């Protein structure tokens, strides 16, 4: 099928590359002309496992192309997919300005019987609103607007797209839904479950899914706090509850509070939808406040560990909001590092991928060459991201590099007993601190 993707960002590019891999003819469009020029030259804007190979392969056979010429990219296509950003608005709502602008800009070029589909995460009712925007411009044109939310995770985006848990197709018209089913036929034939629904339900599914996942994280963090005061172990508790299939083992790890480009903004947007439609979502409202508190509380706990040390230095490992991505949007580091600096603590950081993205946002931090360099002369080592390379750090070398052997591990990467043997004070989450 001939597919045009509007918005060559994280989701748009991954989707475009993967759809071309499935055999479709894909053009990715972006208003950022520089981004398009770089993509044409094979320079990709972010790091994601496996994506480069797919892009290079499909660009070579011209199944994947990039354009900043909207008219020719939109005319005569079977599907126009909108994957522009929907950032947090001033009241927590999803800001739909990019979606509206995109619809207005491509509407003049839509060919008859094109299916427009919204991949962006959007408020309930947006597909209908986009329909009206296009209809206003094109009057009698026969076209459809559908919803096809995306569930990929950064760090495993390609495999998530190509082997998804489910595909959700929201269409208020049977023919339009059939077109999207044809688009995903190669995946559906491999047994991927399909959820066919109306556009409003599809829009809500995305928010409800992210809100529920964020709730699991928030709940686990609260249980971890309980484990700490009962000298328990969150790993055992998580296993004990997670083996109940109604709960499931995924997402039951404590951490410094969820971040990233989706959970913070999607939980806020979900709560806003509830308020706007007079169907309040108090669980999610509480979760948002609690997650914010979590990050502040971690900073307070770190400060307590180094209280009284004048000119204290903290080594921070991890700026990305999670491992295997260079994305730092709403990462724990962006909240915790400034809180430490506000208390006059010097911060030296290391992240294997995300330092380039984080450095401009944390201008007062210095950046290390590697984790041991970050630890050199520090009074405490704070681990914020669960990078695999941090798990395999040599505790003896860390102990040697640090001025005081204190590790505050927000990802539970080490065994407390072993860390005690190396002479560390080792604080982790949801487990007894040693000593
Ligand atoms: P992004 O910021 O990485 O990319 C958006 C792109 O759209 C940018 O390159 C921007 O220049 C472009 N754009 C904006 N307006 C445009 C226009 N009028 N015409 C053409 N291009 C335009 O955003 P993202 O992370 O890819 O997210 C896109 C959407 O997908 C959001 O709604 C997000 O919530 C949702 N989503 C994101 C993820 C994720 O993990 N990042 C996962 C699932 C869903």
UniProtKB/TrEMBL annotation:
Record pathway: Nucleotide-sugar biosynthesis; UDP-alpha-D-glucuronate biosynthesis; UDP-alpha-D-glucuronate from UDP-alpha-D-glucose: step 1/1
Gene3D superfamilies, alphabetized: Cytochrome c1, transmembrane anchor, C-terminal, NAD(P)-binding Rossmann-like Domain
Catalytic activity: UDP-alpha-D-glucose + 2 NAD(+) + H2O = UDP-alpha-D-glucuronate + 2 NADH + 3 H(+)
Residue ranges of every copy of the UDP-glucose/GDP-mannose dehydrogenase C-terminal domain listed in the record: 315-416
Domain of life assignment: Bacteria
SMART domains cross-referenced by the UniProt entry: UDPG_MGDP_dh_C
PROSITE patterns from the UniProt entry: PROKAR_LIPOPROTEIN
Record bears the keyword Transferase: no
Alphabetized UniProt keyword annotations: NAD, Oxidoreductase
GO molecular function annotation: oxidoreductase activity
EC numbers for this chain: 1.1.1.22
Family: Belongs to the UDP-glucose/GDP-mannose dehydrogenase family.
Protein name: UDP-glucose 6-dehydrogenase
């Amino acid at each position: 099928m001939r597919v045009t993707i509007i918005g060559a960002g994280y989701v748009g590019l991954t989707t475009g590359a993967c759809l071309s891999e499935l055999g479709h003819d894909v053009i990715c469009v972006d208003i950022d002309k520089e981004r398009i020029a770089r993509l044409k030259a094979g320079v990709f804007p972010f790091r994601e496992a496996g994506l480069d190979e797919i892009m290079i392969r499909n660009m070579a056979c011209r199944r994947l192309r990039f354009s900043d010429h909207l008219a020719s990219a939109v005319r005569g296509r079977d599907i126009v997919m909108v994957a522009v950003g929907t950032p947090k608005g001033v009241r927590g709502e999803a800001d739909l300005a990019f979606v509206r602008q995109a619809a207005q800009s491509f509407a003049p070029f839509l060919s008859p019987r094109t299916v427009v589909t919204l991949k962006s995460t959007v408020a309930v009712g947006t597909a209908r609103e986009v329909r009206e925007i296009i209809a206003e411009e094109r009057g009698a044109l026969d076209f459809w607007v559908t919803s096809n939310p995306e569930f990929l995770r950064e760090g495993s985006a390609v495999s998530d797209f190509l082997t998804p848990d489910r595909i959700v197709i929201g269409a208020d018209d049977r023919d339009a839904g059939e077109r999207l089913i044809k688009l995903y036929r190669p995946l559906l034939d491999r047994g991927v479950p399909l959820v066919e629904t109306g556009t409003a339900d599809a829009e809500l599914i995305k928010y409800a899914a992210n809100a529920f996942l964020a709730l699991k994280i928030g709940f686990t963090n609260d249980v971890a706090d309980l484990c700490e005061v009962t000298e328990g172990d969150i790993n055992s508790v998580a296993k004990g509850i997670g083996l109940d299939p109604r709960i499931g083992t995924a997402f039951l790890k404590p951490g410094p509070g969820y971040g990233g480009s989706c959970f913070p903004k999607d939980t806020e947007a979900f709560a806003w939808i509830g308020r706007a439609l007079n169907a309040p979502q108090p669980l999610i409202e509480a979760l948002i406040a609690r997650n914010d508190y979590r990050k502040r509380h971690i900073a307070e706990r770190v400060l307590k560990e180094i209280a009284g040390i004048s000119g204290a230095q903290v080594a921070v490992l991890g700026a990305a909001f999670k491992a295997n991505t260079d994305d730092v949007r709403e990462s724990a580091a962006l909240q915790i590092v400034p809180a430490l600096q506000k208390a006059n603590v010097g911060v030296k950081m290391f992240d294997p991928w995300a330092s380039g993205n984080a450095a401009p946002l944390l201008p007062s931090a210095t950046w290390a060459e590697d984790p041991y360099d970050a630890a050199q002369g520090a009074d405490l080592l704070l681990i914020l991201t669960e990078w695999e390379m941090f798990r395999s750090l040599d505790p003896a070398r860390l102990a040697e590099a640090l001025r005081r052997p204190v590790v505050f591990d927000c990802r539970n990467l080490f065994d407390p007993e072993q860390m005690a043997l190396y002479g560390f004070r080792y604080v982790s989450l949801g487990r007894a601190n040693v000593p």
